[in-house]
Amino acid sequence: MLRLFDLTFSILGLLLFSPVLVVIYCIGLADTGSPLFRQKRMGRNKKSFVLVKFRTMQIGTDSVASHLVSRNSVTRLGSFLRRAKLDELPQLWNVLKGEMSLVGPRPNLYNQKELIAARDVLSVYSVCPGITGLAQVKGIDMSTPEVLAETDAKMIKEMSAKNYFKFILQTIMGMGRGDRVGQSAEVEGDEK
């Protein structure tokens, strides 16, 4: 049932937001020259997939969790996209392909060993990762791996059509703050 919702809403979202996607893409070309960001992430059953989103950081930023990256790495456009959560829109393509769901645990990087271990214990990888979920609307990000894994497990256990729509609505209404970006200017590298 939830997969049917994912298919329906990803198709509708891609169609309805296509003008917005095109505008952000064009502005992103002027901003960094490379508006789309692709990154290998861990999906259901730890299967690898390539997540797609709008680039919010300078080319050359390390491929690490956001909380480990310097705020100086975020572009002006990226700062706006993150606040408005528009950087996530291209992930509707991942949802359409069945690699993600609209609602589920945020997909982690392969170098986030502590989070992977915590999620393994709680069987979080038994479901598709999502664009939003309980942790996102509560403002819990990957900087607290055990809390995140526990929140993800709670969401999975209590998942229903009602909660699916509740988390989407709460996200649209601006609940949560998204993944925070680190404070220091010491980390630099490549957002690929």
Keywords:
192 residues, mainly alpha, two-stranded parallel sheet, single chain, globular, two-stranded antiparallel sheet, disordered C terminus
In short:
This protein is 43% helix and 10% strand. The chain has 192 residues and is mainly α.
**Biggest sheet character:** 2 strands, antiparallel
| SSE arrangement, N to C | HHEEHHEHEHHH
Chain-averaged pLDDT: 88
Strands of the largest sheet, in order across it?
Answer: 1-2
Number of strands: 4
Radius of gyration: 16 Å
Global outline: globular
Instruction: Give the proportion of residues in helices.
Output: 40-55%
Strand content: 5-15%
Question: Secondary-structure blueprint of this entry?
Answer:
Blueprint: H1 2-16, H2 18-31, E1 36-42, E2 48-54, H3 76-84, H4 91-96, E3 101-103, H5 113-121, E4 130-132, H6 134-137, H7 145-157, H8 161-172
Parallel strand pairs: 3-4
Antiparallel strand pairs: 1-2
Give a structural overview.
The protein has helices at 2-16, 18-31, 76-84, 91-96, 113-121, 134-137, 145-157, 161-172, and strands at 36-42, 48-54, 101-103, 130-132. By secondary structure, the chain is mainly alpha-helical. A two-stranded antiparallel ribbon has the order 1-2. A two-stranded parallel sheet has the order 3-4. It is globular and about 45 Å long.
